[in-house]
Every structure is written in structure tokens, then in C-alpha cells.
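Checklist before submission:
- one chain only
- standard amino acids only
- sequence pasted in full

Submission:
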Amino acid sequence: MSRMAKQVYLSTQKGSWILNHVGDNGVPLDMIFNRIHSWLNHILPVGLINNLREKQLNKWFNHKLYGLQPAHRVFSQHPMVNDDLPNRILSDGTVEDDIDLVVFATGYTFSFPFLSSHVIPVSKNKVSLYKYVYPPALEHPTLAVIGLIQPL
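Returned file contents:
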């Protein structure tokens, strides 16, 4: 029997950079970061680029004002890409009293228990996959891992 939660709440201990899907002028944010910022990375110091990115993110949503300003620099840890969260924080000032369950999900480790450990070895929560898809140790490339997205 599976049960669905009526309501889910988010809590963060050390904050998180929140990115939206759409950037300035309606351009998808991943396009902006992949094209423009990769070009800027070659000509400007990393510290200056981080300052510019953080300033831009705080124009959209002031992280410090709402207790989400992380101590780490943008993109030094996984950011949260979510268009709805800032609007929910800004418009929902309710207090919740009747909470049934609190889950502390501070991290995770992944594995492939359905495979022999030599097929896809996991070390320090990382795997080595050719083109992020194929286990390089296989004699014949008959296995593809699709969806293991771990931005580092």
C-alpha cells in the first residue's frame, strides 16, 4: 500500500542557490550558462564571475532576505532549479502545527545492487561512465546507464 503526502515542506540547514528555468529576455537559463558563461570563464577570474552570477540571482530572488543565502559560492555545490519555490516563500506566510512526519534527508549514497560490483564500481559516491552512459570496464558495450545525472 503506497501513501501520498497531502503536503510537503522544504527545510534547509545551510541554504541553497535557487535558479529559475528561464533567464533574462525569456532565454532558457541553461543556454545562458552554457554559452555565455563558458566564454566568460576563459576571459574573467572565477571570483568575479561568481560575484556577477550571485548578484544576478539575488536580483531575481533575494536569498539572504528569506534565509536561503548559502555560505558556499554559486555552483560550488548543487543549486536548486525551481520556478515555484520563491513564489511560495514570498506569498505563503502560514504556520504549520499538525505535522505527522519529519524526514532528515541530508544526503544520499547510490549503488547498483542489482549488478555485480565490478560492472559499475561506485567510489566516494561517484561512478566513471564513458560519455556519462557506458561502463568502460565491460568487454562488450551492452549496458547503458541513462538518467544518472550528477552535476559536479
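Reviewer check: Residues 37 and 44 are 10 Å apart (CA to CA).
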